[in-house]
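Researcher: Hi, I'm a grad student and pretty new to this. My advisor asked me to get structures for two proteins we've been looking at. I'm not sure of the right format, so I'll just paste the first sequence and hope you can take it from there.
Model: That works fine. Here's the first sequence with its structure tokens right after it:
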Amino acid sequence: MKTVSGLFETDAQAKDAVAALEDAGIASGEISLVSRDGKAGSDAAEGVGIGSAVGGIGGLLAGLGAFAIPGIGPVVGAGWLATTVLGAAAGGVAGGLIGALTEAGVEERHAHVYAEHLRRGGALVTARVEDAEVDAAAAILGQSGSVDVEDRRTDYEAGGWTAFDEMARPFDARDDPDGEPHLRPIIPPLPR
């Protein structure tokens, strides 16, 4: 199995990507969605944005839950990735989201961009697929509006970012003057 991932600016795009993956025959159990859901403020349990966005997705909605990821803050997620991150947190295992992604076969370089994208209010869709399905799944994510991970890295690095820091203060949507997730300012980490 290979992991194919896509970054999305909106929960609606992420929901469309999940629906398209399911329509292509990828099992719901092999698809995950995690979103920072900036509308939820400090209480991800009020994750109305992503909760209603995934409302139409059969198998994935059953696993929908709110939790916090160090350095990202409150998120709403469903699927195998959310379960893996929650399990690691509950067991006190270090690595969090980056560890879960790299363990699933995502390049560490990309995992850092995915985590930072979530930190800044975006959404992440991942699918575990057979080798023969990789190109089709990647095409579906692209057609659904996924952001190019290297372009996003370039945007972040232009602002001084080097890697995701789970000790950083979670991004607060009120800190975003222009509404552009990829242009949001880097917020200094909390004192340790």
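Researcher: Oh nice, that was easy. Here's the second one.
Model: And its structure:
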Amino acid sequence: MPIKTYRGLIPDGDQIKINLRTNDGKVGYRINKFQVIPEDPAGTTGEITVKIFKEPQTTVTDKIRFDDLSLLGCAYYSGNANPNYPHDAVIIFDSEVFNQDIHITQKDTNDQAKVNYYLELEQVKLNDNETTMATLQSLRSRYESFTPAGPS
């Protein structure tokens, strides 16, 4: 199946929505590649967290919780405007297939930097059972986001 690419610039503390939903839900997506870099990499001193969710977020934070069922992927970028310090990035994403809109958030702990993102999604043709399963997973993550978490 084809690859769809998305790219853009996210201000600090912001959230964007990528429209993927179809009327019949028979097209699914899987993250193929996810990359981030600040708008001004050489001039940015900060720790930047970019996350991809299946659900819109009420608050944008730099906290990462892999027990959040709506989290599809995250990127952590750290850099320093001083050239003696290296820049580093860690990117983790799930191979889960989803058929709903996704939401990308960005939070910088220091500079309030704007961050570029690049996202490749592999399109996956879904049969009736897979469509039902992807939709039910989306509903489950929505329900569990409103349910108190267990022990941490």
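Researcher: Is there anything I should tell my advisor about the second?
Model: You could mention this: DSSP finds one helix and eight strands in the chain.
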